[in-house]
Write a structure and sequence with these properties.
single chain
Length: about 260
Amino acid sequence: MKIVRTFWGDLHRMGDRYPNQIKNAVNDNLNELVYVWGVDNYKFISELGYECKLISEDNFNRDLASDHIFYDHKSPNHKLYTINQALKDWDEILFLDWDCNVTKNLDENFYKILRSGGSLQAPLYIYPKKSIDWMIEETKKEEINPFFTKLKKLIGKYSYEWKDNYIVPNAGLIYCRDKNIDLLKLSIDLNLECLTDEFVITAYVQSKNLSLEDYILNHEPKVITGKLHDEDWWMLLQNKFNDYVTSIVKKDNYFEHR
């Protein structure tokens, strides 16, 4: 199994957020391979000690997107491109976002747990229905507001529902050992926007007519729970959903996603 990460775009588009995440992830000591767009990005990441593979001297694949997700809503397709490339290079991969970090050492049990599950796995997380309007209101005077208004239009189609919440696969951790799964092509064919890397997993399982419980049994990795949130009310609901998930499958967490 090869652990992979990626970076595309402007390293400082969100201030110091991305440089700090990349620096902090060094401490995980995962021996990961980083697929990188952009010469400057490659230089910064490789000088921190990461093994890197330069996909393009350009910061973007302009056929996919040309800005941060908040401004070019198809930007996460770069991640799906990375997953496709990694599956050409390796038979089994674990993709991680930079803010998805280890909480304990990866041992034989970790690999056994992942391999006992489905060939594609990503943890579910929660979007309270009220959170969409909350984010629209919070950003109403900002240029990123169109992202959230578009998200509101799309999320109902590409999610499960649990109580009064949308449930979406989280692309911060994706395990895959099936080279025939082409999430990028599916995303492009469906003309997905906003959370393209997450909506596309929903679309994939929808094509198999899987219920929420089916997803948890077959595609929920048992090594991580849903993404953590800064808002207490949101995290409270996430914890309740985590309890529902663990009533169906047993977890032994090795990662957390902030």
